[in-house]
């Protein structure tokens, strides 16, 4: 049995985005960002919808300054699909819908997660976002 057998990648995506929307959308305590940061591997990197490549430290630096920058933000996760799962690696694609001030913005996101054994948890390695048409 591998570390990933007891983990749910969809629940992981939902939980991490709940932390993110709490941090950006409320007057959250610093522990919320700390919990979010703990999910990112030291070598984490991402590509944003604008095409910018960010390291873990760049992402977290920007997020530290963005606390409560989008009051009321809610991030909804739908259409999650595991594209690949072998050993401790899982690749998942999902649709993020950011609800704010009566409007929404959609993006497709693909993430590479690795399962850590002790304690059992996912570590986020790579994230790639692409704007999606809003309906």
Strand percentage, roughly? over 45%
| Multimerization status | single chain
Q: By helix and strand content, what is the structural category?
A: alpha+beta
Major pleated sheet: 6 strands, mixed
Q: Give the termini separation.
A: 42 Å
Rg from C-alpha positions? Answer: 15 Å
N-to-C series of helices and strands: HHEEHEEEE
How are strands sequenced across the largest beta sheet? 2-1-6-5-4-3
- Give the strand tally: 6
Helix count equals 3
Q: Which residues sit in consecutive blocks of at least 5 with pLDDT less than 50?
A: none
Overall body shape: globular
Mean pLDDT: 95
| Proportion in helices | 25-40%
Structural overview:
Strand 5 (103-116) and strand 6 (121-132) form a beta hairpin. Helix content is 26%, strand content 46%. The protein has a 6-stranded mixed β-sheet with strand order 2-1-6-5-4-3. With 135 residues, it is of the alpha+beta class. Helix 1 runs antiparallel to helix 2 (30-37). The chain is globular and about 40 Å long.
